[in-house]
Amino acid sequence: MNPLTSFLSQITQIKPSEMKAALTAFFFIFVLMASYMIMKPVRDALPSNWGDVSLAQQWTLTFLVSIVAVSIYNVCASKISLRVLVPGVFVFFSISFTGLFLAYRSGVEVTLLGKIFYVWSSVFSLFHISVFWSFMSQLYTKAESKRIFGFINTGASAGAISGPLLVVLLAQKMSVANILLVTSGVLLLTLPLIKLLNTFFERDENAESDRQQLSPNPFSGFQELITHKRLLGIAAFIFMFTSISAFLYSTQKNVLAEFSEADRTYWLGVVELVTNSLTIVIGIFVTNRLSRKFGMPLTLSLIPFLVAILLLVLSMNPIALYVLALQVVRRSGNYAITRPAREILFTAVDKEARYKTKPIIDVAVYRGGDVFWIWIIALLGDGYFKLSIAQILCVGTAVAVLWGLVGIYIGRKHEADEAAELVESP
Q: Which parts of the chain span the membrane according to its record (predicted)?
């Protein structure tokens, strides 16, 4: 056995025979996240030129475009095979960013184009990762996913670190439009990785399953969502997750208001670096052991309950340092533990749910949660109730507890179904 493979197998608990496929999946999500992070600074710089109303409008428009996007995707999934669908998504986004590049170069009105880019890149930021995990949940079994998904997900953090570094290297030499062209090119690097993964898993039912089309009903993904308790539970879990993101985003915005723009940029950059570095460490050494030893209910509820405790503590003294520290805990815990555990749940559903319902949950429900909670926070604060930051954080604490309870529910449901399958198997 290769010494490097043996070493990686020991620290990740991935079997040597699984290592090539796991590393390929690692680089797959690495490329996807890097492609997004290359243009994320461009996107995040745009709202500084808009007012609060304009930003709220962009968030609402992002939600509406997300619904249209997943509906069109569901129609496509009903008409073409999975072998074409998965790479086709990334080719489509690559072409779309090339189109935005051409629009910039052709002299289209910059403000309008910037708002189009903001909305479309926000849809892309969730869509491409959702399709990636749909693909992974099709390839791996439940048992394999508990050992491997945590490691694979560290590729996203590695890409999140590498993407901005590339931006720093290119920023002085390339225009915004040219960075979009780089993103388009990087996305196409996923195609040989998809082909390689299909080769690794070219076996029995997987190969045949990937060639089959899904149900011809373009609305089956929406129907599955509203008729299956498991999928509704996952959707509720995502919806609650977006609430905590909104509560902390709003608090962070308020406590950093007294800092200069340069200081804000510096400290938020530190948060990004620490978060992604911590995610890699936790993903390699903790995640797979946690889900296998303590089970899915604890794995899914650990971060929500921890965040609830820390939000309550933060409400007593909401200063910038504590807010940023909590952001690191929440985000690294989500990326390293909660997200992989959430994706394990989709190994137990059928193809319709994986490829049709999952993007609805990951994109439309997520963006809908963003819009819902940001308006709730606005009403709690300056909009109507005039609550203080501390009082709003107490509300967030209660929501975080609900988030954890939903995690326990869907975790128990997953393990109960797993146990039932073991009993039924000969």
A: 21-39, 59-77, 84-104, 116-136, 148-170, 176-194, 231-250, 265-286, 298-325, 389-410
Contact 333, 326 (CB under 8 A): no
Highest mean pLDDT among 197-206, 273-282, 341-350, 400-409: 400-409
Whether this prediction's pTM lies above 0.85 is answered by: yes
Residues 34 and 162: beta-carbon distance below 8 Å: yes
What pLDDT does residue 169 have?
67
| Residue partners of 419: CB distance under 8 A and separation at least 6 | none
What are the DSSP E strand ranges found in 183-228?
Answer: none
How does pLDDT run across 230-247, given as a tens digit for each residue?
Answer: 899 999 999 999 999 989
Beta-carbon count within 10 A of 151 CB: 26
Q: Which two tokens stand for residue 224?
A: 């599955």
Q: What is the mean pLDDT of the chain?
A: 87
Provide the number of structural domains found in the chain.
1
pLDDT in tens, 290-320: 888 899 999 999 999 999 999 999 999 989 8
Distance (Å, whole) CA 393 – CA 399? 10
Q: Cβ neighbours of residue 222 under 8 Å, at least 6 residues apart? A: 74, 357, 360
Q: What CA–CA distance (Å, rounded) separates 253 from 255?
A: 6
What is the percent of the chain where pLDDT is above 90?
A: 50
Please check whether residue 256 is in contact with residue 264, taking contact to mean a CB–CB distance below 8 angstroms: yes
In a domain, 301, yes or no: yes
Q: How far apart are CA 115 and CA 46, in angstroms?
A: 8
Note whether residue 5 is domain-resident. Answer: no
For residue 2, being part of any structural domain is answered with no
Residues in the chain: 426
- For 124-146, the pLDDT digits (tens) are 999 999 999 999 999 998 888 98
Q: Rounded CA gap, 252 and 392, in Å?
A: 13
Tokens of 414: 């997953």
Say what angle helices 142-171 and 176-187 make with each other, to 10 degrees: 150
Q: How confident is the model at residue 423 (pLDDT cuts 50, 70, 90)?
A: low
**Residue 125, domain extent:** 13-424
Query: Domain with 156 in it: what CATH number?
Result: 1.20.1250.20
Residue type, 108: V
Q: Is residue 17 part of a domain?
A: yes
